[in-house]
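Objective 1b: paired records.
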Amino acid sequence: MGESNEDMFSGIPFGLWNLLYISIMCLNQASAPAQYYSSIFANIPVDFRCSTNVTGEKNITFDNYCHVTSANIDSGEYNESLNNCTTYEFDTSQVSSTFISEFQLVCDKAWIASMFVMIFPIGSFIGTFFLGASDKWGRVTVIKISSTIHVAGILFVGLARHVYLVLLGRFFIGLTFPIFIGAGIPLSLESVSPKHRSTVSFMIMLPFYAFVMLLGILAYFIREWRMLYLITSIPMFPVPIIALFLDKSPRWLIQQGRVDEAYMVMQKAAKMNKGTVDFDLTFIKMELSNNSDEHNSASNSIFRTTATIKTLMSQLYGTTYMLKLSFAIPTLWFLSAIVYFGVPLNANNFTNNPYLYMIMIGAAELPAALLGPLLIKYFGNIKTGISLFLITGCCMLGTLLVTDNLWWIKWIFAILTMTCSGIIIGKCSLLTSEMFPTVVRSTGYGMSFAAYYLGFFLSSLISNMKIVSETWWAFNTICGVCCVLGAVIISFLPETHGQILCETTNQANDRKLPESKSKYMKVNMGDETELSHVQS
């Protein structure tokens, strides 16, 4: 159904109908910095002291002691003993309230503060196993459910007065985060024509970079962690309401055999965007019938039958090309996540000021949303990806060769690393949408996000390992090697820039053929190069 399925967008200009889909992802990404980086400000280390000593006298210094010494004379003998401190006071000269100070998470309770950081990637990793639900129940349905739970989790974190309820909220935010993105990104990219796809992919990331900067600015003025968290999470609140007005994905409806409904959705899109529908119902139904076995396997929930699982495994690994694709794309996400999160997690190499550092991260990544589409337009996905991985690797490894007195060179390398890694993350999302066919696209995102959050978790684990922190060259070397591996892996993938989205694995396999034999050929259309499905 390649030609008609893609051509149905040819008569519909980009407009309000597309923006509704894109807006929910932009709002989600605007609130994402609060979820990823809130722990930096919620867990700011502050000095503490025991509220009182054993004699009941007020302690006047913040000595960070977990125990107090008591002394007594018994039968003429002088005895000393250590007693646990039961309540603590925290230095509020820099911040008025943190997650640590509010719940007294020091000494024997310090592990709970660490869980505030780790529970998010743990929940996200688990959530990736539910991504197939959007293939079974539809992208929009999953967005409605996951966004509602996500907002509830935000309210738990911002308002709950019990520490374990706060952690539960963080877990549900992490759990629903990949589920929402796994449905939202394909929905956004499936709703636009190929010439707009790379622009939309990076447009979605733009709010994230902007709100990383805003998080650093607001954190400087708002020193109460709950207020800061709730304010920076506000963009996510209207998403469940907006989702009520979204139409079901035309592509998903076609995969379910509901072609007439898809046609009605496209009519609505054409009316809203002031365009026309070029949609061959007869051809679509014929193609759907010819590929019925593959389309029926698109219900990728965790409750698949054995037969459906076998069919899915055949789709993902049944050919050399799909096997290569199913290995390469998640691996690129994994390697990219290690580098992308490694830079902020290794923040002590750049500055001890978290406010300035967050502003710098956002400022450095902001060009990624602007440069990404341009680089892809002129150089394609693969050449751009290879170059960015190599530049990032050179920056990470080059930092090891720079002496401390040349601090400004290290800052240049750091800024280049953040900019390039930001473009790489956007490119991974684009490649996943463009390379995986519709019948397994959500599953492809599921595998990719699982690898991504595994890389996030591993990056935080490595950065906190004692042997790594004590070896000044270790972390940069690991990140540099990851970039070189990424450049090698992406070089084996086919170029997909500007090509139509594949519906079936058979169509995806055609991409490995020489251009003269492929069903996907470039055809000159005036001043622009478009892609059409040529019958072979």
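Objective 1b, second protein:
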Amino acid sequence: MKPSSFRCIVVAIALSIAASITLSACNSCNDELQNTGPGKVGVDDAGDIGRDTPHVAQDTCTGASCTTPPDTTSHTDTSGDDVPGPTCPLELTCGSGCCESGQLCIRESCVVPGDTCQHTLQCPEGHSCEPTLGRCIPQAAEACIYRPDSDIFDPVVLVAWVDGEDTPEPTYKQVMMTPAVVDMTNNGTPDIVFSTFKGSNYNTDGILRAVDGRTFEPVFDLVDLERRVSPAAAIALGDIDGDGRNEIVAVQASGQGLIAFDDYTTEWAIKWTTDPFSMGSDGPALADLDGDGRVEVIAANRVYDGQTGELLCINTEVGGGLMQSIAIDLNGDGRLEVLAGNGAFRFESDGEGGFNCPTYWTHQFATGLLGVGDFGTFTDGQRDFDTLDGIPEVVTVNTAAADQIQLVNGQTGERIWSVTLPATDHPFFTDEQCTAKTGAGPPTVADFDGDGRADVAMAGACYYVVYRNDGSLLWKMPVQDFSSRVTGSSVFDFQGDGKAEVVYGDECFLRVYDGAGNGDGTTNILFEIANTTGTLRELPVIVDVDGDFHADIVVMSNDYSGGTTNRCRDTWSGFDEAGGPSHGIRVIKDRENRWVSTRPVWNQHAYHVTNVCDGIVDATCPGTVNR
């Protein structure tokens, strides 16, 4: 997908601003200078620079070969030579010389900052927008990219939240939704935000909680009745009112309608609520649909104003099916459409100060969960799986007995291929048991095997399955989800070797799979822990949860269902040895912190790295002020 095809929401990230900036070249680099993150130095893919330390690493390094850059702030000659150093004030020193006031020292050369800017696309070629100055400066060389020097996959598991003696309303301890991660208090550290429920009541009366991603200390527990939320539904975090701070949008406690909470300066006061409408275990999504700098909130087939909660439009033709709507540019015109129900709709001004949501297309298949990706070229009657055209196709996953997975044309809704999930030869369940449990969770679209083409994966009752872009099977692995069968998964290249790993949790285990597969229709399990859940729409999220420039996995669990736990114990040998039943929030890290970096943001169920601004990667959101 072309970067210009996305309009994004802004997630506020705290950045420390210093009075002066020095950018110097290096022949080596350390881990702390290799990746972007809150309050740290890094160069993103577009060359944008965010910083609060004095140097930006320029070279590529690998694992243990990374070393600490030389300290260029010392002016004491200890070499024994008699060559005098520069005799100018410290802030004007640049290599062996001095800069004039108003100049910057970049790679030991003095330069004058260029034009004012809000993002790199406003700067001349070879320049990038320095966000703390709002000025264009010459672009650095290649960023220092961290690659682990080992292919060992050796995680450790940390408990981020579980009920304790000091927990407000401790009986609300079960979690069965996708956690969101964002810096909610502008202190430079991401926070984990999630909702909890009591007993087996996962449909209503949930308590919204948050913990610090680094210390796991409580940030808030919204226990008062008027601020209860639906514990089954996903939440969305972002700056919905343009004040530079992140707010929260959730489903109301009854499962009917939305509720928004203001930022930390108001102690999470209720900002607005909507009239009731069915949401179930669905959740809101945030996007700037018309590129005007104001965030819209998407819920099923409805669009709301993020700042006020005003209903802007409804599309009745695509239906209000609760299938986690997605905002995406379907035709490459730079405008976002909304995928919802059994079709897609646009968001347009009506010319009189209001908005319409006209239908873009509908399909005649069963309503399904949605995913998008470029699977080939299918315009003007073409059917080319080898040539990518930058225009997305749409994957839908439904509960029909046949043709459960459909790939459809993103511009017309016409079917390209369809497949049915495998239901035979499971090691523990009969073919009849697997066939009777139709449906699967949200599709995960990624290049699993490193061939440069999009693959798609989903989990059903008996198998986690990956299909190639043409619908042929890449691999499958046996799982167990006889409850909802609508859980999702995540994909990430933890080791930076160009090969994706898959993170998925069923009723019994959280597993990490080798994405490429073994070539025989199977793959290897790289990591496995017991992680019980009754399963709804939840998925594990991959995020830099503590701001240390290394990826982590955040996963929820619940143990309210004795039947699920017994089924896990009876079916899978080693279940108790792998940890047995659990509840709460856990964080999984590499034992030696070798995983590569990722962003400190996963703000909603519909999160993609290309649809959320984090204040660092300006090229992600060229249509907005990304600060």
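The longest helix spans residues 562-571. The chain is about 5% helix and 30% strand.
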